[in-house]
């Protein structure tokens, strides 16, 4: 049931029509983030591979990224924009949280999204399809496993009633932590060449930096912080893997 809650929350698939999910389940979706990545990353991989049979790779990659945006409802990208606006424009904890909760996008969010998508599109466009297709699955799953660590190292920065989604995630138990690592690591072991495994450290490094920043600035994390952490850690994985594959 918790896995279904994760799929309902993080995709726009009408799974809620199939079965009603208790509200409590949405507090326990974090261990299933990497498994959601199997769907979102798998879709990204399948679309870029299929589209590349018709279009040049840069066009195919852009189409694949667009399909993932439609599948997720731009949930993570909205979080990244709010995160950048809040941490870029806020000077106090209260002001930072207020900006992040504002539905309007500001200069930091716009510029940040432009730079993010340019980097992501460029690195994908320069990789061979035989690498990009499996990498897109691994990057999604492994980066979700890394960003899931936020809930174990930081408290929620707001009260549950102040949350946009009215949900505060529960911290993971050791068994759930194992599920996260398995869900994120299995695609890497099966699909990614060992020469790229050093890139596995990049998302965790980004997560560590962001945890420290969030703790200092707002004393915890928010849903926007989760989305931003996932996208930035995923981008770091692409960049490092791309650098390794192109250089060696």
The dominant shape is: globular
Largest sheet: none
The percentage of residues in β strands lies in under 5%
Count of individual beta strands: 0
Structural class by SSE content:
mainly alpha
What distance separates the N and C termini?
A: 44 Å
* Contiguous helical run count: 11
Q: What is the assembly state of the chains in this entry?
A: single chain
Mean pLDDT: 90
Which value, in Å, is the CA radius of gyration? 17 Å
**Which stretches of 5+ consecutive residues score pLDDT under 50?**
none
Estimated helix fraction: 55-70%
How would you describe the overall organization of this protein?
This protein has 248 residues and is mainly α. The protein has helices at residues 2-10, 33-51, 57-72, 75-89, 93-101, 107-126, 129-147, 150-153, 174-191, 201-217, 223-247. The longest helix has 25 residues, at 223-247. The radius of gyration is 17 Å and the shape is globular. The termini are far apart. The model has no long low-confidence stretch (mean pLDDT 90).
List the helices and strands and how they pair.
Elements: H1 2-10, H2 33-51, H3 57-72, H4 75-89, H5 93-101, H6 107-126, H7 129-147, H8 150-153, H9 174-191, H10 201-217, H11 223-247
Helix pairs in contact: 2-3, 2-7, 2-9, 3-6, 4-5, 4-6, 4-11, 6-11, 7-9, 7-11, 10-11
Keywords:
globular; mainly alpha; 11 helices; 248 residues; single chain; 69% helix
């Amino acid at each position: 049931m918790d896995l279904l809650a994760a799929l309902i929350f993080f995709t726009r698939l009408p799974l809620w029509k199939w079965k009603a999910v208790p509200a409590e389940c949405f507090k326990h979706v974090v261990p299933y983030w990497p498994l959601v990545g199997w769907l979102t990353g798998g879709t990204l991989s399948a679309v870029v591979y299929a589209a590349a049979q018709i279009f040049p790779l840069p066009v195919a990659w852009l189409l694949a990224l667009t399909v993932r945006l439609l599948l997720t409802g731009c949930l993570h990208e909205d979080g990244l924009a709010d995160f950048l606006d809040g941490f870029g424009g806020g000077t106090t904890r209260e002001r930072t949280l207020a900006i992040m909760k504002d539905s309007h996008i500001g200069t930091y969010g716009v510029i940040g999204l432009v730079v993010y998508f340019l980097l992501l599109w460029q690195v994908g466009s320069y990789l061979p399809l035989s690498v990009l297709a499996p990498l897109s699955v691994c990057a999604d799953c492994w980066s979700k496993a890394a960003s899931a660590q936020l809930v174990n190292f930081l408290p929620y920065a707001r009260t549950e009633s102040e949350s946009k989604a009215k949900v505060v995630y529960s911290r993971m138990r050791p068994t759930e932590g194992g599920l996260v690592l398995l869900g994120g690591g299995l695609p890497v072991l099966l699909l990614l060449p060992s020469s790229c495994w050093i890139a596995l450290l990049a998302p965790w490094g980004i997560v560590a930096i962001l945890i420290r920043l969030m703790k200092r600035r707002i004393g915890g994390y928010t849903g926007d912080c989760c989305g931003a952490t996932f996208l930035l850690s995923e981008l770091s994985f692409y960049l490092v893997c791309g650098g390794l594959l192109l250089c060696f």
